[in-house]
Amino acid sequence: MLGYIGTYICRLETPWVKSLKEKRALIKPVTEKLKARYPVTVARLDGLDAHDWEVIGVVTISNDHQWVQDTLKMVSDVMHTSGCEVTEESSSIQAIDQDGSDDEEDE
Fold first, then answer.
1. For every residue of the chain, which 3-state class applies, written as one string?
2. Which residues pair with 6 in a beta bridge?
3. Phi and psi (nearest 5°) for 97?
4. In angstroms, what CA-CA distances link 93 with 8, 16, 68, 70?
5. What's the pTM value of the predicted model, to 2 decimals?
6. Which of 46, 56, 86, 99 is the most buried (most CB within 10 A)?
7. Which residues lie below 8 Å from residue 104, measured CB to CB, with a gap of 6+?
8. What are phi and psi of 90, to 5 degrees?
9. Which domains, ranges and CATH numbers included, belong to the chain?
10. Please, which residues have CB within 8 angstroms of residue 79's CB and are 6 or more apart in sequence?
11. β partners of residue 102
């Protein structure tokens, strides 16, 4: 086994927000906090033009499965305390072999 790629995707609902500027003021500090605190890449995937929801994706990679799993759990915890409502979330860890084949494990 060469390593593991972990992904976390969540949908955040912000029904009380009335503008894109207001939503960005909520979302940006959360994404910046994740990038500063954990070795992850964060992307705003969908809902960029909607003021009341957004989909965020987070990815990390390591040679230690437990570390990837723990990191994704901490990311989830941050998202749940972000001030936005997490309505959907999923995470998965994909094993990377030297020969190029991979195995996927959903959580």
1. CCEEEEEEEEEEECCCCCCHHHHHHHHHHHHHHHHHHCCCEEEEEECCCCCCEEEEEEEEEECCHHHHHHHHHHHHHHHHCCCCEEEEEEEEEEEECCCCCEEEEEC
2. 60, 93
3. -100, 160
4. 9, 34, 8, 11
5. 0.86
6. 56
7. 92, 93, 94, 95
8. -150, 150
9. 3-96 (3.30.70.1120)
10. 8, 10, 12, 30, 56, 86, 89
11. 96
6-56: pLDDT as tens digits: 999 999 999 998 999 999 999 999 999 999 999 999 999 999 999 899 999
Lowest mean pLDDT among 25-34, 81-90, 92-101: 92-101
CA-to-CA separations, 29 to 3, 6, 19, 24, in angstroms, rounded = 30, 22, 17, 8
How much is the average pLDDT of 63-85?
A: 94
Residue at token pair 């723990």: 70
At which residue do the structure tokens 């964060």 appear?
42
Residue type, 58: V
Q: What is the CA radius of gyration of the chain?
A: 15
